[in-house]
Model the fold of this input.
Amino acid sequence: MRSVSKGPSLFEREKKMGEPEKNDKITINNFKVTLNEVSFVPLPSSTDGDLGVNTRDEIIVDNASLDGIKLTFTRSISLNPEAIFKIGVKYSLEAEFINESKDFFSKSQDVEIFKKWAEKRKVEIINDQGIPAKASVIISAISFGSTGFPIITPPMFFQKKEDQVN
Done:
């Protein structure tokens, strides 16, 4: 499945976040979101009692260049103790820098600037495009179809407090 949105561009608020004034020109658009993979692995369900739900989200910067960025979002669900099933959903997102942003970046001598920018903004980009919410709907439907009980996961990027970087 592939969808393209040409809605309002992101990152107009960077200036308010303490970034140098030049960063308010860094904008991406022409988003292409693709559902790459859905996995369901049935497991033996020999566990009695309550089960906990483990949610793991990951965002990888696959590519960042003058042409744009490509990100991969993966959400994995498992039960604790391990039982019944594991579910995984993987999306990719591609976006282009607008011409003004390309002009800004082309003047830079730092070839890593694209990756640094994408790493800093990847959670915001993924959340703004609703990708975790889409993954949540898929996981809910699969878990409901398997057990009769839906697992509802956060509609935004999920990061445990100990995993957060300030």
About this structure: The CA atoms of residues 67 and 87 lie 33 Å apart. The chain has one domain: 2-159.
